Please model this.
Amino acid sequence: MSKEKNPNSSTEFLSPLTYLVIGVSFVTLFFSIKSSDPFNTPKLAALLIIASLSINYLFKYWQVNSVQRNKVDLIFISLLSLFLLSGVIAVIFSDSILVALIGDTQRRNGFLTYLALSLVALTAARLITFNTSKNLFRISILSGLLFSFYGIIQMTGNDPVSWNNPYNAVIATVGNPNFASALMAIFSTLAFSILFVKTFSITFKILAIVCIAMSVTGIVSSDSRQGLVSLAFAIAFFSSIYLYLTRRKLGWIVISLSALSSVLAIAGMLQKGPLAALLYKPSVSVRGFYWDAAIEMFKSYPLTGVGFDHYGYYFKELRSVEYPLRYGFDLTSTNAHNTFLQMFSTGGLFLGLSYLLLVISTLVVGLKLVKDSDSNQRILSLGLLSAWIAFQAQSVISIDNIGISVWGWLLTGAIFGLASRKELQKNSIEQSKSSRTRKNQVTILPFLISTVVLIPALILSVLLMRIESNTFMARNVLENYAGQADKSSAISQQLLRLLDQHSSYILDSKIADPNYKIQIAYDLFNSGEQQESIRVANELVKSNPRNLYALDAVALLSREIKDPTAEIEARKSIEKLDPWNGKNYLQLMILYKAAGDITNAQLMLDKILSFAPDTNEAKSAIEEFSK
Model:
């Protein structure tokens, strides 16, 4: 079997793949404390720029190399194309094109995110070799050290940033302990695998051990089960496959034990079996409601889904009645907490199926890559695949967070890229023929194309970050204004001018998050601009009638200015989108009774008693109706 030539270390380290992985690490580690959303929007901005820059490497590669197509390459390109085409269709049929493209509030899983992730995967597939793949491991270990070190700082109570954090303190740079623990599991898996690669230096192996120790400490401190489970799955997978290929009988034993342990672990997370006390968390039960709602969305909109990243717009309408009775009428969700169900529910059959096929193909191609490789190449391949398994394990019960997903897609591209090269070698196609250089034909075309893409990406990223900072500043200014004893003082008037400046920027922006504009509407109302506040809220309802936050704003603000007619109309719209909301029915009953419409008041009371007879809302409704 032919082997790749070993380039000198400096050339290997400065390879284009190295810059791509550094960019991926930057996406994960980057956040902004001056943003209304300090994690997701900054990561989206960084991801868009990194993906745009990668286009330059893609076109240079295609221009310099005469690539021999093979089955693996064809599968990868076809599935990525089908996924992106299905995404475009899902965007077209979405209620809000803006949300479909950029993503929902504090999620940012819109089409642009997946387009950028696809570019990262494709670039990794084109640039990776077994030699350069070592830098992927090196950079991931260094990233894991930084990431887990920050988590440990948070664990000890020494975080320099005062986060408004309702979770466990260990949120690292991704904003949630579940996300943090899942990412530490991926880093730990990559670090674990290089311990078996002979060509890595002792220094990096020591760093890998430190990374594992710090990451496991962070995972345990985060009190997040999914990080431990993901790491356990990944290590069990690595051990099972490695032993199966090297010591068949021992491998079968380990595979059997791993399979049994996996079944017990899954059962334990579902509050069944001997591991239930150790692995079960109440948050697992609530995911069942999220999954059921996603299935209902897919059944109701099988071809197009409810709209790219529009899960939150349909959740309350299609959720089970048991959910609000158990968790309250206000609690909602904007994600299925399962990437596969999220794809099917928001993008329909073709988007969900193309993503599922991409995942299955990655596993099959990865296993074949490991089987066809030998020595250190086998361990490198298995390490990448095992880390990818850790990513997929958490995606079954979690949200597709950008800081994690960028690694999952990078690993997907790396697996397909190495498998494609191995396929060429297996078919006896010489490396010189499969990658014939054409240096004399290199032009500035790649640079021009990447610049054309980079400029709008930069502009969009800057605009998104300005929107974030203005929303953040508007809230701070309002809090300072509310704290002023004399609202007519010079300082108060200056604060009002600042509030108007920040608010105007958000309201005038065509790409500002709709929910940020709702926040601005409340801010304007609290600063005394009531009519402008009502106008903004009504405009948002007009542009997106399914936005429950906007409808709630219209209802609440209408109550404040004593406009019962407008409040009734808003709450009637809420009733259609949130049919199991006892609080809304209670307010409607009170409004109808005050207006002398006893028939509709009785109807609202009957609705509350029909599904929520034992709630405080039912008791209040009976008392109010009897007055």
